[in-house]
Predict the structure.
Amino acid sequence: KCYKKSMSFGGYIMGKARVLIVDDSTVMRRNLKIILENDGYEVVGEASDGSRAYYAYKEFEPDIVTMDIAMPNIDGVAAVVKIMSEFPDANIVMVSSLSQKSLVYNAIKKGAKGYIVKPIDPNKLIETIENILNDNSTQVSKEVIEDKIKNTRKLIYSLEEDELQNIFLKFTQNIDEHNNKIIESVIDSIVESVPKKLIFDFG
């Protein structure tokens, strides 16, 4: 089950959601559309770059967006920033390759709600979208996060920046905004004690 926006009455009603697909690959857009429509979703629009994504979002106000990262003109991360600045409640899922982890990390910092990795696993795509739309994000208490970080403090000292980003992505995948901020605040307090060469911006 998931919810879609009610254009007549505001709020949400039961039903499969409206999706905007953003990717510069015609083949990828077609594949995503097939997966989504086969599961009952309504694909209301497509865009081939970040600039078109922004205007398509304004036109259709979809329930969720699948956003490629590497695109011409305006890339996916910049598109997230542009959309979120005007539509802070937008639900955006990044679609990335394994080599784009740092860009996915930046997109999540800017407001993306989750990510999936190419090649697309249809079940994972649907699961990620439904978790976001149903707000079934993992609930993580501050105490649990602090305990995990305390137990791995020594490990943090030996990690390179890319490895720290990977840990952050695993923490934040499908975690709601409130808990995301808790994670960031706790990690910020720990990173102060990490050697300077490992410190980078957690937002």
